[in-house]
Amino acid sequence: MRSEDNKKITETGPGTPGGNWMRLYWQPVALTEELDTDRPVVPLKVLGEELVLFRNEDESLGLIDRRCAHRGADLSLGRLEDGGLRCYFHGWLYGGGGQCLDTPAEPVSSKLASKVRIKSYPVVEKNGIVWGYLGPGTPPELPALDCFAAPEEYTFAFKGYLDCNWLQALEVGIDPSHASYLHRFEEDDDPEDSYGKQFRNTSLGTELPMTKILREYGRPQILNARTEYGQRLVALRKLDQDGLDGSSTHVRITHQVFPHGITIPLSSTMAITQWHVPIDDSSTYWYSMFTALDEPVDKAVMRAQRLEGITLPDYKPIHNRANQYHFNPEEQKTETYTGLGKDINVHDQMAVEGQGYIYDRSNEQLSSSDRAIVTYRRMLLAAIDTVAEGNSPDTLLTDSAEVESRGPIPLDGIGPTGEWEDFWAQAISDLRKASPWASELRAALSTGPAGVPGSVLEPDPSLLTDAYDLTADGR
């Protein structure tokens, strides 16, 4: 990758090509639980912009500039009263739409308030996350993904902090082979204790623990295809060890959802949709929405599990650069590949933060396992250039209320070797038919289990004759 292209895809601040592209999509800006306090006011930084989110007594939300238009005081510390945020400096009051409602230090006859407005953005609250639209014009509908279509009790939302650029955070999620190494456990946990934990349950259609499959089959066949929402990833691991004859294959289907989301299975009946939202160019919040097909989510258990590894109110991890992520060399020898315990989030955190604050992709050498990353970068560069030319990217889903569900639907299961597409379609159909809320959402199935028409698999870039020629691009 050329250095100028790396700069283009990592910078998302106001006025940058990448920032202009990303602002066309809704962004997670806070968890609903962050507003569940006696004073529901949350200072934010999103895409390099300092903002403040607040909830009025009438339950309406406001997302406005953090600085008072008068002399720049911090509105996140202002008074929440009279239908808005009132600056503590001279009493100027701002409503949720950014309009100034009152300038009490001015003469009674002053018309100043009617002439003052600060930056504000549309907000919507859905299934535990508050979303902001930081782009131009009228915002689109939220895309009709399963995590938005599901009833609130079938979802759970959480977030965490990463001390690096957003793209590093996303790319680990579209790298299927890393799970056999970064997330390798030398011993298998009891699947009965797997609720809410990634890679700890058995795979659909078998009693084989996911930890065993990942540990013993470290060379997956990876396929990917472009879709209207991003791309679909397929990782196939033929089961031909420990007496298995290769007639069955572990099939893991995941998705990349533009601009910066992934959808992956947590278990056979619960999916994770995760967004990697730039705070600025060198720090990121990930937001995860867990969506269950079969039964309401035990939110108390899920939240308690995740609170063990973070500090509030900033949701920053206890394991971090400053303490070497609590690395344990003895554990690395005998229990885990990383020596960081069993929290998958910590493994990913160390991997992506270890690349630096903004990774220089001009120095890397990609391999065949990186094919989805190559595809995403190409799509990303094309989308940014399209927006710079004044056009709309193909990956912008402007759903109307009539769209039932696009999925995208992930899977972790074991089926007949050579028949992953039929197995995936049937398994997903059966799971959705049994769901109390998803059984009637036919749109996601009518065009295939990904919710999109049949798509052509991407070629493997590592097979090109100059694939590993570092002089091929003129360097």
Describe the 3D structure:
The chain has 475 residues and is α+β, with helices and mostly antiparallel strands. It is 20% helix and 23% strand. The chain has helices spanning 3-10, 17-22, 112-115, 146-149, 166-171, 210-216, 299-307, 329-334, 344-353, 371-388, 420-433, 443-446; strands at residues 27-31, 41-46, 49-55, 61-65, 79-81, 84-86, 93-94, 100-102, 123-126, 129-132, 155-162, 221-226, 230-238, 248-257, 261-265, 270-280, 283-292, 310-311, 316-317, 411-416. The termini are close together. The mean pLDDT is 91.
Q: In summary, what is this structure?
A:
With 475 residues, this protein is α+β, with helices and mostly antiparallel strands. Helices cover 20% and strands 23% of the residues. The strands form five sheets. Strands 11, 12, 13, 14, 15, 16, 17 and 20 form an eight-stranded antiparallel β-sheet that branches. A four-stranded antiparallel β-sheet has the order 5-6-7-8. The chain has a three-stranded antiparallel β-sheet with strand order 1-10-9, with no helix packed on it.
Rg calculated over all Cα atoms: 23 Å
Poorly predicted runs of 5 or more residues: none
* Helix/strand class: alpha+beta
N- to C-terminal distance: 10 Å
Sheet with most strands: 8 strands, antiparallel
Percentage of β-strand residues = 15-25%
Tally of helical runs = 12
The global form is globular
Give the fraction of residues assigned to helices.
10-25%
Mean pLDDT: 91
Q: How many β strands by DSSP?
A: 20
